[in-house]
Each structure stands twice: as C-alpha cells, then as structure tokens.
User: Fold these one by one.
Assistant:
Number 1:
Amino acid sequence: MQLTRKGLWGGLIREFRDFLPEISDSAITTLREGNTPLVEVENLKDIFGDIRLLLKYEGLNPTGSFKDRGMTFAVSKAREEGAKAVICASTGNTSASAAAYAAKAGMKAYVLVPDGGIALGKLSQAMMHGALVLQIKGNFDDALNLVKEITKNYPIKLVNSINPFRIEGQKTAAFEVCEHLGFAPTYHFLPVGNAGNITAYWKGYNEYYREGFISNLPKMMGFQAEGSAPIVLGHPIEDPHTIATAIKIGNPASWEGALKAKKESGGVIDMVSDEEILEAYKLLASREGVFCEPASAASLAGAIKMKKEGVLNDGDTVVCTLTGHGLKDPDNAMNNSPKPTKVPVDIDKILEIMGF
Ligand SMILES: *Cc1c(COP(=O)(O)O)cnc(C)c1O
C-alpha cells in the first residue's frame, strides 16, 4: 500500500496563492475551506437526458456555505491591516461565516440581520461563534446601508461582498470546477442574491482562460427568485419576498457584475418561482442524496427551466452551484418532507406499516 496524497489541503489562500492578491503568511486565517466536491448527477435522466450535470456542493465548506471562500480572504486581509473587528449585513450565511473566521482570527464580529427570515442554523452559528447579533426591524438592504454607514466612521472592517477580497476568494470555486473537470463547463448555473458569487465565478473562469488552463468559457446562468428578482425586472425592489431567504435581496450590490457576466458569456439572468425552487430542493435530496438549502436549489430549478425551454442540449456539460447546506434551514426541510410515522413498540404493526 502506498499513500497517494500527503499533507493537508491548505485552505484556498495557500492552494491558489498565485491567483490571489498578496497576503502575509502570518495573517492567513483558514478553516481549510474550499476543495468541495463536484458531484455527478445520476438519477435525473428523465429530466436531463444525455446532458452531463454536476453539482458544486458548496454546503461542504467549514460553516456550510460558499461564503467561507470570500471570508477567509476578507478576514485575513482585515487581520493583516490590524483590524480588531469585522461587521456585515447578512441574510444568514455571511454572518455565520464572518463570526467563525473572526473567532479564528481573534477578532470581534458584529452582524446585522433582518428581524425574522433568518434560517435557524445560520442564526445559531453566528451566536455560537460569539458574534454580536443585531436583528434590525428592516430587510437585508436596510442592514447593508447601515453597515456601510458605520464603517465610514468607525475602525471596523466591512466584510460584505462589496469588500473586493470577498470576490477574490470566491472566484477560486471556478478554478476548482476547471481542475476537477479538466475543462470549463458549457453552462454554469448559480442562484443570484447580492450577485457577488456570479461576479466571482466569471472572474475566476476568465483568469484560468487567460492562463490557457481552459480553452472555452461557460455561459453564466444566474437565477433569482420570482418575488425577489430586481435584476430580471430591471429595477430595485422595495419589499422582496421568497422562501429562499439567502437570495431575498431587493437591490444587489454586484448588480453590474451580474450583468457583465451575463453579457460577456452569452448567458442569462432569469428567475424561478418558489414552487420551482422547492421542487428542485426536494428532487436533489430525495433522488441524488444531496441536501442543500432552498436558495441553492434555484440553480437546479434554473437548469430544469432552461432544459424545458430547449436551451440545453445533449452532450452539454452543466454545473449547478449548490451554495449552502440543507441543515442550515431545518424548518424548510421539515415543512417540505413527509412527517415521521408514530408507532407503538409492536413488531407486527411496524412490519405492516413497512409494507411487509
Ligand atoms: C449568499 C448566498 C447566495 C447568494 O449569493 P450572492 O453572491 O449574494 O448572489 C445564494 N445562496 C446561499 C445559500 C447564500 O448563502
């Protein structure tokens, strides 16, 4: 027997250092994020035919979402600059990630979240990691305006995706997709909220293309939720609503980045209904064994929609990013699956219910 791979995955800053802005070793704050699996879909041939479909399972990052990719870099940079505290507005996952990385860096984290609509898992993470959690009587967009104002005047580092180091870290997911496949996919589907992630992936693909590591670029396919689709509608939305709380954003910070990715790649920014999102959410869990949170399933819902509209063809390679883990949002899981069956301690009754 021989060991094939020695040494730990160093976290994405160390692994992709040549492609990232400089950072001093002593400032690197990592929970060994990145290197998430690209899972081959096997059981959805009835929907996708001979399209090769893969899932970039970002829920397997240390705090359970892709936000860790940007956060390792944003917090490391803040540490390098001597910051003592970080702050963010969040629909949940950013706060969980900021709180964890701040704890690792020995910093204070302040997080502003909307009062209500934060999935239980995410809120409990921010609390456990010792962040000061402020629930504001407003939505995400209000929270983001507040943290921008606060960081203008106080020595606290803003770690929302308007912090350019967030995008830098997040672009590494595109590198991993290329390395795992050996080429870039034909289409890349993503949920779109604040639009930082689609901006980051497009940047990543372009950098690998310029280096000659890949010889094609994917079409970027961003999907918003119908009740929260400002980019699709072409104007900000005062009161966004969707079951997919992670993408419940009415005025995305990286609006321009999303449009640029769409235009340059020949892709789309489109929307799917909450029903389509929940359908995809259940399909992934029950037929592929992959549990993601509702917002994440907007990518697969988008792919199903594009397949129905005849956009995707046999032979295409399609990647859907699943942005966050299903355990983040136990309430939606409980509300969208069959309830457990209560039974007496009686083997005959149990076998009868099992169908034997
Ligand atoms: C943050 C988040 C999104 C949206 O990503 P953006 O970069 O804001 O577009 C989607 N899904 C999950 C699970 C998220 O946490």
Note: DSSP finds 15 helices and ten strands in the chain.
Number 2:
Amino acid sequence: MNALLPRPSILSIEPYVGGESKIPGVNRIIKLSSNEGAFGPPPMAQEAIIASAREAHRYPDGGATKIREAIGAKFGLDPARIVCGNGSDELIAYLILAYGGEGTELIMPAHGFVMYDLTGRYAGCRVIKVPEKNLLADVDAMLAAVGPRTKLVCLVNPNNPTGALLPQSEVKRLRAGLRDDILLILDSAYAEYVTDPDYDPGQALVDASGNTVMTRTFSKIFGLGGLRLGWAYMPPQVADVLARIRGPFNVNATAMAAGIAALAEPGWIERSVAHNTEWRAKTVAGLQAAGIKVWPSACNFILADFEDVAKAKAADAALRARGIIVRGVGGYSLPTCLRITIGTAEECQMVIEGLTEFMKNV
Ligand SMILES: *Cc1c(COP(=O)(O)O)cnc(C)c1O
C-alpha cells in the first residue's frame, strides 16, 4: 500500500498552540495569554457587529473598499496599497507562499514570531533563525545570513514574544543592506502601543522601497481578535500579487463593519495606550520589586524572566492556582520566561500580588 503523504517539509511543522483560556475547576479566569487588548472590543464595534447580523446572508465586499478607505484615512495611507486579510496571519501566509517556496530561504530573528517559522516551512522555505544580541534583533548578523537563495526577511517590531523595540535606524539599515529582490516583511502588530517618537511602523520604508510590506492587525489594540481582521500596506506590485492569490471573500462582512466602527471610536487608541503605558510600568515595577527580571517591552505584554526553567514553571502554576493564565514561551526557546499580557488595572494587580507571593515562597 502506498501511504498518503504531504510534502516532506509539512511534517517538520509543529502545530501552532494558542494561548490557553481554561483551567479545570476554576470559574473566573483572568486570561493574559494572547495580548488581546485590555478593554475588549470598542463599544461602537460591538454595535456594528450586532447590526451586521441582519445582512449576514449577503456576501461581503470582496474588494474590502470601505474598510481600506477607513484605514487609509486613519493612518494617512493610499487605500489602493492596502490589502485586508482574515487576520494578518493570512496576509503573512500569502506573502511567504507567493515570494518564498522550495529552494528559497527565509531569515528571521531567533526569537521572532513563530508564524514566520511555521508558514516558512509550509511554503518549503529553509528558515534561518539568526541569534539576537540581548534579545534584540542583530541587523549585522541578519545581513550576514543572507545568501543567493534568500527571498524573505521577516522582522516583528516591536517583537512578540520579547517586547523588544529595534531602533528605527537599525530597521532602515536592515532594508538598505538587503538586495532589491528580497521582500522585507515588517510586522507591526503592536505599533499603536509604541510611544517612542522615533518609531515608524513601516510606512516610510514601504513608500521608499518597492520591496517592503508592513502588516497590521485589529486583534491587539482594537480588541477584535475573534473576528480575524488584519491589513498590510505595500508597493502596488505586491498588492497586485496578493489580488491574484487571495480568496475573493477572504474577509467577512462582520469583521469589516466592526473594523470601521473601531477606527471611528473616539479616543480609543489614546485611552488604550495611556492605560497600557501606565500599567505596563506598574507591573514591571511590581515584578522587579519582587525580585523578577523583566525584559524591556514596547508592547501590551511583558516578558518576565525567572532565570530558571523549574522556577518559571512553578510561577506559571502559582498564577494558575489564582485563575490567571499567562503564556509559557518554551516553544519560543525561552523556557525560563513567561509572557504576561497587560490587562485591566485589577488584573495587573492580581498578577503582581500572585508573583510577589510566589517569590516569597521559593
Ligand atoms: C498577534 C500578532 C499578529 C496578529 O495576528 P492576526 O492574525 O491579525 O490576529 C501578527 N503578528 C504578531 C507578531 C502578533 O503578535
């Protein structure tokens, strides 16, 4: 009998494991494992979701015209160069499948976002993970890893799961050092949270080059992860490629309606950023006071480092006993760390209390 088998590279992929959401026997769960935004969906987006129910029999606008116009107006971008996806994960997959494939290489930092590794292998690329310096992407090492088969370089900035922000000058130096036939994917899923005045999520680099794409998402600050809505800003020739390969109705009507409403919610980004900046600092200070190392973060999560694998596991268990789910990042080869989303003020306080108590007892 001949066994049915996929392409060999497929079987090297470990299925993606998302942040957990349940603890057996615990009723009230504090879920701080997927960076979903502290405030939930904006009220106007919730209204739009309900209103969209009446039109659920209609196919969505395959051109995603209104949502692209709303994104363009909000961020000052040409809607013709915006493509929407069923989450930015879908756009990332399209880009890697379109430009990568068997016989090509994809370069990413060692602790970069896992989807680039998984999708790179799916496409058949050889995925090269370049060691960082102090958990910060090492541009010289990434450039040194480039070979004749390199087609894709993927940089998440600020990065998940480390929270690290690479200075703008380094991002520019990376693009400038890459050949023109290499696509640079700048994943700016956490862009809205960044308060560094020098930061550019990628718009300037996309405009300045024909081979850079910026990806963004409604899953983090806009609290719409459950609806799957992402977008990317890109040169016209890349938009043309995605227009050829994407599903004709890849973004659903409810997601688009909610996205438009979320962008229109007055003060949403400002309030979310102010809360995040305040409670990230308080959580960092609380954990440090308890004796825990915390890596610098520009995102809506922090990476707490217990500097010992068993201790990190015990801290995870101690939080779970209090109904708090954070994210173990052993799968990112950071087994001494836990990634903790910045939730509401109350949730952050519960994390600080739980870990302070834990550190007293270890
Ligand atoms: C959360 C996240 C995404 C977003 O994904 P969606 O598919 O839009 O939900 C993309 N990149 C990074 C680095 C993320 O952390």
Note: The mean pLDDT is 96.
